[in-house]
Write the structure tokens for this entry.
Amino acid sequence: MSCDSGNVNWTLWTILAVLVLCILIATGLWGGPQWNVYSQMKEGEAQLAHAKYSREVAVAEAKAKMEAANLLAQAEVSRAQGVAKANKIIGESLTGNEAYLRYLWIQNLENSKQHQVIYIPTEAGLPILEAGRLRTTDTRAVK
């Protein structure tokens, strides 16, 4: 009897193993394609989330550049207004002060380099040219 009982036990275990193996194969055949669909769906969602994030980053960077450009433009306008006011003040203070301007010109002559050519404007606003000036290094002018 123990011999029959051992064969029955062995047969039951074999049938159970074959049944479990068939269930695993069936699950694999059904679950494999399902898993592929699921994993592709998750991969697509991840790519979509990445694209949305990249777009948000690009938009934020563009907005930051636009704000920076606007602020730089405002700073440039403020600087130009300051320069315009300064020029107006200087221009108004120099109007009618030809004696002071001549004094400044004479003071700057003292600080100028030796052998420096200075052009003095005439009443017409044109400088006196050096047409008659003779250079000692110019051999064509000396005859």
About this structure: The helical segments are 2-94, 98-111.
